[in-house]
Amino acid sequence: MDISRARGRHGHEHAAARQPDVSAQLPDAAAVLARAAGENFPVAARVLPGDLRRHLMALYGYFRLVDYAGDEAPGNRESLLEFLEADLAHAYRGTPRIPLLRALAPTVQECGIPQDVLVRLIEANRQDQHVRRYRTFAELVRYCELSANPVGESVLHVFGCARPDLVSLSDRVCTALQVLEHCQDVLEDLRQDRVYLPEADLAHFGCSLDELGTYPAPLRWRRLIRFQVARAERLLDSGAPLIGRLPGLARLSVAGYVAGGRATAQAFAGAGYDPISVHLSPAKTRTAGEWARLLLTGGAW
After folding, report:
1. Tens of pLDDT along 2-43?
2. Residue 17: which H helix or E strand, with range?
3. Could you give the domains of the chain?
4. pTM of this prediction?
């Protein structure tokens, strides 16, 4: 999706101004931020200085709020996404209404995060309202350019490291993490009539969506998930050299994200690549071990 062809920012703001206040559809800020503890990776490591942790948590609050608007909110989700985009524009002027965007406003200003980077997350959730299937892995990767890659780019801005070459490596890491999450949430996504496993791969492995209620997952489904996880691991490994090219605290933080991805892949292997019968979650000890190794090696495999 080309952001430049999206409706102009002023059009979104004027549309939102004509709408009733839909902010009551949004969850409490504390409830959104509490989700950080359940992520596959450490969102804002406690060893980081307070200002960096504040910026990372402000970004996390925004990311999760946008996902809530597109995935869980009652009522008209597209109107709510319009409202969020209008308030994001206000955040860049220092006058947002939503509490989580009030927390975000100092971060975007102090870290110089381009507005279009954060708008892409909203565009991904708009796409979710209409696109329920992806034919090929290439199509899924293009979706991840909206839904996942802006997360890593924003984090690099927090550390003052958003050079194009580093963003390119970050994109690989973020796409890999998104693919792993799609494998974890395959049943939950299907309940919303969304499938983030490429149709070409479903057909290749002979998998039918009707089988997703079967426990344990049929062997062909486990083979499909193993294939997707291996794909994600290759992407993760190709982006991991980013760690060695980052300074101090940025290196520490990004290594944690990659470590969470590797630990998640290992959790899949331990569960026989069956995300249907088993609640997959990376072990904290495994994440810590991977984190230490990545810091020592700089991401070299």
Report:
1. 333 334 444 444 444 444 567 667 888 888 888 888 887 778
2. helix 9-18
3. 8-130 (1.10.600.10), 132-301 (1.10.600.10)
4. 0.89
